[in-house]
Amino acid sequence: MKNPGIRIVVLLILQALWLETSHSEGPASPKINEELSKQEAIYQSTGEQVPEGYTIDRSLSVYAEGLSSDFDRTLANLGPKDRWLDIGAGRGQAILDYYTPDYDLTYPEGQERRGEKAQAVAMSIEDRRTPHWRQSVVSLGGKQIQYLFNKRLRDYSLEELGEFQLITDVIGGFSYTENLSRFVEKVLGFLELNGVFYTVLQDVHSEAGTNPPFYKDSPFLTEIANADGAEVKVCSWLKSINCVEVTCELKTHWNPPVEAYRIRKTCNDVTVPALVRIDYEAGTPPQRRYQLSD
Ligand SMILES: C[S@@+](CC[C@H](N)C(=O)[O-])C[C@H]1O[C@@H](n2cnc3c(N)ncnc32)[C@H](O)[C@@H]1O
Q1: Least enclosed by CB within 10 Å: which of 4, 208, 232, 254?
Q2: What pLDDT sits at residue 168?
């Protein structure tokens, strides 16, 4: 280009286009790729390297405090033929707590029906099994508890995992995934008809819209907008999924507060309105922005 004026204009346009793509959806975006590798480093962190906010050992009672109020009862009502999947299980402490004699003392009502208790599957990207987990596998025997790792939820097929009556996710894949709509689609695919998915999100605009973002001058941790840029609450998006019944419950005693979601599968023709990832910043959990796709 001989004309320096035109050359500068072309360079400015190219720079603007590059900036635009680096902030948008797609594997070619250098910014997103950098954030995804930072996130991978958090998953693979061990010992001193595990960031302070990356909690991997929540007990079953902490699960019950954070999840919708009837989670307790749903778990206690599972029988020996039922299956429970905990996505993003960390060390699997909640599952280990379910098999203790203390659990039966706390929930004596369902004990007879529970019998040998449901089969439980813990899923984590990284292997966080402890000696306690390994001992429990031996003492419980068979396939009563299983720990799956090295893959994300999206990498499993229905043939491999089978169906579950109960699926939980406490600050696991639902809070960490970069593709929220595909994640929910997969979860519902593993849920039996009338099965329930219990999960939470921290620092999210609640259904009633009464809470501000937890950190001053920061956005909520997970945000969705429609094609015009207007806010779509996570609760409303979940309620727009076909074949589910959803309740959303704000729990302000968590720090930051969480919104607890109870999602029951009511028929098999599930359709999840697709979300496009607009932004993803690594963290514990990451900050994510999505837009409803046309
Ligand atoms: C902060 S830990 C939470 C552990 C546990 N739920 C607790 O509360 O102690 C996050 C967990 O989610 C897992 N995780 C994140 N994204 C996931 C995905 N897409 N599929 C499966 N596990 C995932 C991580 O590997 C890790 O086990």
Answers
A1: 4
A2: 99
Amino acid present at 28: A
Using the mean position of ligand 1's atoms as its centre, give its distance from the Cα of residue 169 in Å: 8
Number of Cβ within a 10 Å radius of residue 243: 15
pLDDT digits over 233-253, tens only?
Answer: 999 999 999 999 999 999 999
On whether the CB atoms of residues 201 and 234 are closer than 8 A, the answer is yes
pLDDT at 29: 84
Q: CB under 6 Å to ligand 1: residues?
A: 43, 54-58, 87-90, 123-126, 152-153, 170-173, 176-177
Residue 86 CA: nearest ligand 1 atom is 6
- Residue 131 confidence (pLDDT): 98
Give me the residues of the chain with pLDDT under 50, please.
Answer: 1-2, 4-26
pTM, two decimals, is: 0.90
Nearest CA to ligand 1 atom 11: 88
Alpha-helical segments (H) within the chain:
4-22, 30-43, 60-66, 71-76, 93-98, 101-106, 111-114, 131-140, 158-161, 173-176, 180-190, 234-239
Name residue, tokens 């819209």: 209
Phi, psi (rounded to 5 degrees) for 87: -85, 130
| pLDDT tens digits, 1-50 | 445 444 444 333 333 333 333 333 445 589 999 999 999 999 999 999 99
As a whole number of angstroms, the distance between CA 292 and CA 227 comes to: 6
Alpha carbon 171 to its chain's center: 6
Please tell me what DSSP assigns to residue 255.
S
Return the closest-CA partner of residue 250 out of 219, 210, 206.
206
